[in-house]
Design brief:
338 residues; DHBP synthase; nine-stranded mixed beta sheet; four-stranded parallel beta sheet; 10 helices; binds threonylcarbamoyladenylate; binds magnesium ion
Length: 338
């Protein structure tokens, strides 16, 4: 029996489309995904086409439950079951050795595979009724900001995606934490809401945090990602005033994603739009992409994000801001926070 959702959400129709090799965008707790049948190479190729994504860039396969892991991965270590038990459904992706039956199209030709069980009622219902794995990258054009509501997906992909399931705004707002269990030690490939400390606690050991690797194709290892079209600058609060003065001299119109109140005495008000951002990291994360998207459409010469505090809680936000910024200021890097 298929549950009824608000108008426009038709799980049965979505499942029919997916079985016919079409794409369906669906909500997850992190961001919206562009889904297709992971067992159908032609359907998976369609994802790459729609996103404009290089074919060697692997996709995450979404599963209805941890029980289906064995159909998609082999030599599954005990650590994977421990993490799955603790964090699934949830915003954690595990990289494991690929099951031989998995099409190489999904894994970008690699012998490993990214798997997760998303924590969103619509996604889970879709997966249960589909009864298979859904390959689903974030439903944006390659290199652009991930969508955190259904309207963003349409803005990105237009009518090319056959169906968009509207599950409202995403609760987490940043992509899942990615942990690789392929090498000798568990390795963090992308920070997310589930923290290094939480994972290390379950595993009972430290996580490795690579700075770069030519052999692993993960988003953390791309110089620019998640970027708005308007140049994004990162500035600590202490340097904001002087930067705004330069912008004023140049006649630039700027938007500031602010964490502190304006210094009214010295900060020029004209041609600066100040957008107060949440002071809590999880709330900031939830709003980040929607804010960037809105400001990107605002006709600004620059967007300036005030740098959040250099604490562990802000790791995932720093990671995305650094990648979106035109001059990455990597003073706060993953390795410094462990
Ligand atoms: O929260 C998320 O993870 C969202 C939602 C839709 O689930 N998905 C997402 O997918 O962010 P995507 O494709 O935009 O980013 C996933 C990243 C890819 O950039 C890819 O490099 C990495 O996961 N990845 C996937 N499989 C991998 C593998 N076998 N080895 C290393 N990295 C992998
Ligand atoms: Mg993405």
């Amino acid at each position: 029996m298929i549950e009824q959702h608000k108008p426009g959400v038709d799980i049965a129709a979505a499942v029919r489309l997916l079985r016919a090799g079409k794409t369906v965008a669906f909500p997850t707790e992190t961001v919206y995904g562009l889904g297709a049948d992971a067992a159908n190479p032609a359907a998976v190729r369609r994802i790459f086409e729609l996103k404009g994504r290089p074919a060697n860039h692997p996709l995450i396969v979404h599963l209805p439950s941890a029980e289906s892991l064995t159909a998609w991965a082999r030599d599954i270590p005990e650590q994977a079951w421990l993490l799955a038990e603790r964090f699934w459904p949830g915003p954690l992706t595990l990289i494991l050795p690929r099951h031989p039956a998995v099409p190489l199209e999904v894994t970008g030709g690699q012998e490993s595979i990214g798997l997760r069980v998303p924590d969103h009622p619509l996604a889970l219902e879709l997966l249960r009724h589909f009864d298979g794995g859904l390959a689903a990258p974030s439903a944006n054009r390659f290199g652009r900001i991930s969508p955190t509501c259904a309207a963003h997906v349409r803005d990105e992909l237009g009518e090319q995606v056959e169906m968009v399931l509207d599950g409202g705004p995403c609760r987490v707002g940043l992509e899942s934490t990615i942990v690789s269990l392929i090498g000798p030690r568990p390795c963090l490939l992308r920070p997310g809401q589930i923290s290094i400390a939480e994972i290390a606690e379950v595993l009972g050991c430290k996580l490795e945090i690579p700075q770069s690797s030519p052999t692993i194709r993960a988003p953390g290892l791309l110089a620019s990602h998640y970027a708005p079209k308007t140049p994004l600058i990162l500035r600590p609060a202490s340097a904001l005033c002087s930067w705004l003065k330069i912008m004023r001299e140049r006649g630039c119109r700027v938007a500031v994603m602010a964490l502190t109140p304006p210094q009214t005495s010295s900060e020029p008000a004209a041609r600066v739009d100040r957008i107060p951002m949440p002071l809590q990291p999880q709330e900031y994360a939830r709003e980040l992409y929607a804010s960037l998207r809105r400001l990107d459409a605002g006709g600004f010469d620059y967007i300036c994000a005030e740098k959040p505090p250099a604490t562990k809680e802000w790791l995932a936000v720093h990671d995305r801001l650094n990648r979106a910024a035109i001059t990455p200021e990597n003073s706060f890097i993953a390795g410094e926070t462990t």
